[in-house]
Amino acid sequence: MRHTIAQFISSFSDARQLLLAGVRFFPFILAPLSVQRDCERSARNTPLAKNVLRSGYIAVFPSGRPYTIRFSQGAAAYFPAVFFIAEPNSNITLFDTRGTSTTIGEQTTHVIARTRSHFSCGLTQRSALAKDVRYTAIVETDAAFEFAGFLHGTKTHAVRVATQLAGSRSVSNMRLALLCSQHSQTFVELQHAHAGPKTNGQIHLKAIVRDHASLHAPGWITVGKRAQKTNSFLREDVLLLSAEAEAKAVPNLEILHHDVRVWHNATVGQFSSDQLYYCASRGLTLSQTEHLLTKGFFTDLAGQMNNHALAQYYRQSLTAFL
Amino acid sequence: MLAKRLEALRYFRAKSLPTWGADLSELDFDNITYYWKPTDQPSVSWKTVPRRIKKTFDRLGVPEAERKFLAGAGAQYESEMIYHHLKDQWTKLGVVFCDMSEAPRLYPELVKKYFGAVVPIADNKFSALNSAVWSGGSFIYIPKGVHVDLPLQAYFRINAPSIGQFERTLIIADEDSSVHYIEGCTAPLYSKQSLHAAVVEVIALPRSRIRYTTIQNWSQNVYNLVTKRAVAYENALVEWVDGNLGSRTTMKYPAVFLKGRGARADILSIALAGKGQHQDAGAKVLHLAPDTHSNIVSKSIAHHGGRTSYRGLVRVVPQATNCRVKVRCDALLVDARSRSDTYPTLAIKNSTARVEHEATVSKISEEQLFYLESRGLTRADAERMVVVGFLDAFAKELPMEYAVELNRLIEMELSGSVG
């Protein structure tokens, strides 16, 4: 499906204000060469075909006052490749809400957080996910990237979020809540690649797998040879709520520098019998108890988010669904 | 046995090298001696043993006769009397402890039943190679209700090469019995051969307990590619205690298949990788029955540009209800040239399982060093003390003489890098 730049701009809920504020929108082929090069660099680690890259759209957010932006994609306005560039000292909070169409194929979003910029991104996708959702971020010196997602899948799909902490003192936090139900088969890959020194990364995945669903969740922390004083962790918590549900947690570490503090942990279990008993003794039915505990399990992630608006968006997404 | 060997050879030729794990591209199968007749004659001259190995013997205080034995330049006779005394005791209890090469002739029923039952010949390329060319190794059978109090050591089996290149070990503990088997030693073991591909099969029948302790310190020209696997039946316990100090490349993942209700597995391993070494070790536990428990602890130290990898698999099948799994991997990186990787896989297909995995990678903490330095230790001594303390959980599981030698060896190994 061929789109126009006008459709891309109108996918932002307050497009007019953004244009007035100096946000620049380009189709890839009409973007300045330096911007094109940055986008190509960002796409280098993804299997993005050249023709898809060239049909992509770019939004460049200038430095200045903080922006909170709502961006929504559905079957009618679906962009296989989107690039968000946060200029130095900018502060962007973007809420990416996906539609419920089943026709969406692969979709890649690239974020470039330039020096001292902050880019926070909230992703919500319900019912039927795009077949392959991919987020990548390059975080430059003193910049920060924060990702929070709530995804509910009922079909076969893959979600990949990868951040390259390229500049020194760059920070990346990923929090992802995942509810897998029915016969869905979900693949979730979360990755932090620490390339610059003194970088900080946190990954926390929480998943509930029920019905006949299955989850495969590899996670990666890689620390490069120049990434001294890296501080990074990867955590995967999975609850299996039915006898037929399956989960495979694979938290990997590859560490090439000794002056680091890196750890990961993974747990797979179910609701604690103490919690179930406590709720039952207060008169709650089993389904009410499960609903309450599910909400508590996921809401916990909001407390870990640094960006208040992002935490609020995440809570709202959760409440709307649960 | 010949038919099995020929079949295994066909599998070995058909299978390709693993595409994951350590780099095995320089392994030359045409440049390996696959069998030599065990004799009392030294296989290598003492003069040809590298100076580094001789120096380590000196510093460890290994006795003269043992040095030649460990270097492959002499045979060990001094402990013959002790061995015969112990052998008489064991024989009265019905315990079988002999060379694996003799076992098919002496105990054909047991060998026929259990040989290859745990590690099939087609399991992987190196188990196929071992099944085709194996020689030496230990065969142990512990009858029902017998508890062997003293650890059995391969070291005691005189006139048979206790540690060969392709040894095969088979241990069967019958119901309600227990045994502790120790192989290897902390002193460096020199070999001219470049490949060590052993297979160890352990069968723990209901309510039995088997502890298998290995310490390998091969010289740094050896590829150490070992398949170790155990099967534990109802309420049995299998413990692997595994120390990897030497060799150029190690790929070793002790495995336990928990087949009976209430079976347990404890795996404790350490890896020390120095210059040019890659220790790719780990653990594998399959929970195939309800109420099974496993506990995996892995500790690794990389120094002088060495690389350590933990590669693990925990699988819980749908019928294995109420399983408990705990995995802990700690890695210490001593210098900027070293590398540490962790590749665990937790595949859970039962909602009643409780699985925990935890891993950390760090350098020696400045707070600990500061504390020790403020008590008068030099920085080098403080660093060595922290490293030895890091491996304390492993050393505690070893017999005292092994633990003392292990600590000295680690201090020596690190003296170049942290000293």
Describe the protein in words:
By secondary structure, chain A is an alpha/beta fold. Chain A has helices at 5-10, 15-20, 33-43, 50-54, 273-281, 286-299, 308-321, and strands spanning 24-27, 57-61, 67-73, 81-86, 91-98, 106-113, 118-125, 132-139, 144-153, 157-165, 171-180, 185-194, 200-209, 214-223, 230-240, 246-255, 260-269. In chain A, the strands form two sheets. Chain A has a nine-stranded mixed beta sheet. An eight-stranded parallel beta sheet of chain A has the order 3-5-7-9-11-13-15-17, with helices on one face. In chain A, helix 5 (273-281) packs across helix 6. Chain B has 419 residues and is of the alpha/beta class. Helix content of chain B is 26%, strand content 32%. Chain B has helices spanning 2-14, 51-60, 64-70, 80-93, 103-106, 108-114, 125-133, 366-374, 379-390, 392-395, 400-418, and strands at residues 96-99, 138-142, 152-153, 168-173, 178-184, 195-196, 199-204, 209-216, 223-232, 237-244, 249-252, 255-258, 264-273, 278-287, 293-302, 307-316, 324-333, 339-348, 354-362. In chain B, the strands form two sheets. In chain B, strands 1, 2, 4, 6, 7, 9, 11, 12, 14, 16 and 18 form an eleven-stranded mixed beta sheet that branches. In chain B, strands 3-5-8-10-13-15-17-19 form an eight-stranded parallel beta sheet, with no helix packed on it. Chain B starts with a helix and ends with a helix. Mean pLDDT of chain B is 82; it is low at 72-82 and 156-163. The chains are: A alpha/beta (322), B alpha/beta (419). Chain A binds chain B through residues 225, 228, 238, 240-270, and chain B through 302, 318, 331, 333-336, 338-363.
